[in-house]
Amino acid sequence: MQGTSSVDVYWRDGDGGLDEAWYEGSSWYGPGEVPGTAGSLKSAPSAMQGTSSVDVYWRDGDGGLDEAWYEGSSWYGPGEVAGTAGSLASAPTALQETSSVDVFWRGNDGGLDEAWYEGSSWHGPGEVPGTAGSLTSAPSAEQDGSALDVYWPGGDGGVDEESFDGTAWHGPTEIPGTAPATTPTAPVTVALPVPSATPPASPGIPHKPGHVRARFAISWRWSGTRTRLVAMHVRGVPSRGSISIACSGRGCPWHRKAAPERTIRRLLRSLAGRVLSAGDRLTFAVRAPNLITERIEVRIRNGVRPTARLL
After folding, report:
1. What is the DSSP code string of 207-227?
2. For labelling, which of 53, 81, 181, 308 has a CA lying 20 to 30 Å from the CA of 190?
3. pLDDT confidence bin for 225, thresholds 50/70/90
């Protein structure tokens, strides 16, 4: 970290304390442990230069956000930011804005969490909307003009970003070209049961309707906690039939889509490239006049074949 008249470097040492070394004038000084920090660091620290102090943050033993700060000629702290116990699942990253200090980290549900100091009080912690399940590591933040930008590795190996323009958060979005190439898997075929032939009806005795018969083939790519649909195909949809595809789960890029027989291929093509998260469920329903609707559920899992079952 670049101070006003020196360069300061911080790290977690062998006894879990906060160590520092600094370069001033033409010489290095230290290293030495900041008093009172032994055993308190459970992650790498993040340091920032404030208007009149140096502030250092880290994840402590109970999963909270700890801080220590150097002001005047003395260190103060360490102390835990109120309300943060148990909320950090990664090292924090700290940023000095014009009138506030912002600290970000990966939350327990894989979302982007933040706390900020403004005026004379801490605010938060809270999760940035729409980020649950998207972080695979600690984030990195920077101030870019009037915007605050936060970056992290996404589930498919690309770099994701979230931006705050002073009023609202925007994202998360993946920076184009940052996701590594992945190899598509072999298609997963999901076959609905083939019913026995429906016997002819006897006079005056109605017969039971038959079942829809269909077969789906799904291919996908996976990386980390994300699954990208490559292609979906369906065969055996009856004449005047239709399908609907519903998605439930926090990673769903759509809620429900439906199409009649003549536009089913167009619907399936429109879903190619959609990204799903582990735990999401796709429910396929095939309907046709005078036939019993068949439904199957496909559950997305981490880096392995999805599971399918008849509903």
Report:
1. PPPEE---EEEEEEEEETTEE
2. 181
3. low
Q: For 249, what's the count of Cα atoms within 13 Å in the CB-facing half-sphere?
A: 22
Residue 227 forms part of a structural domain: yes
Domain span at residue 20 reads 6-174
Look at 224 and 71; give whichever has higher pLDDT. 71
Q: Residues 241, 288: contact at Cβ < 8 Å?
A: yes
The answer to whether residue 59 sits within a structural domain is: yes
Q: Sign of dihedral through CA atoms 287, 291, 292, 298?
A: negative
Strands 74-80 and 93-96: unpaired
Residue 183 placed within a domain: no
**What is the spatial distance between Cα 189 and Cα 173, in angstroms, rounded to a whole number?**
31
What's the predicted TM-score (pTM) here?
0.60
What DSSP designation does 2 have?
Answer: B
Q: What is the pLDDT of residue 36?
A: 96
Question: Of 109, 139, 174, at which residue does a domain stop?
Answer: 174
Task: Report yes or no on 138 lying in a domain.
Answer: yes
Q: Residue 216 and residue 282: Cα distance in Å, rounded?
A: 12
Whether residue 290 sits in one domain with residue 241:
yes
How far, in Å, CA of 270 to CA of 36, rounded? 58
